[in-house]
Write the structure tokens for this entry.
Amino acid sequence: MLMMYLVIRTLSYVLYTTSCLLPVYFLPHVAQFGGADILHIYNRGQVKTRLNASGLYLANNKPGGFFVEVTNTLASTMVMVGVRVLLGSQSLEKVPSFIEVFGRTHPVSFPAGMSRWVDVPFAREESLQADKTLTINCKYAHSTLHCVHARQLVADQFYY
């Protein structure tokens, strides 16, 4: 009897914990990158190649920083729930001091002197606002951006 209770208790715990987890997808082919600041220097194909290939990056020559727009091409089936940005792969001298998404400022620091990923999860309202497009603002003159991953969730799971 005790053994059966433990099995049922363990099974209910596993079902409870696994039913609360929602898989977040990284699908690089469903996001397009752009923005007036970036498209002034690169074309769309170059932007996508530079943000998805290791060793390449987007460079900025504007004194006030630059904006990168991330467009969800599968907005009817996927919802953006966060973004992940890689900074400092080539040089720490040309890293923005912070990035801004939805008016929220995310400071960037490099305690070990190495490159790092900056994760920006969205609130539910921000995910609804980023239905098709979101803007990442890198505020630093002559900064570089190495990689951007849009985190997405299946729309049916998001709206449940």
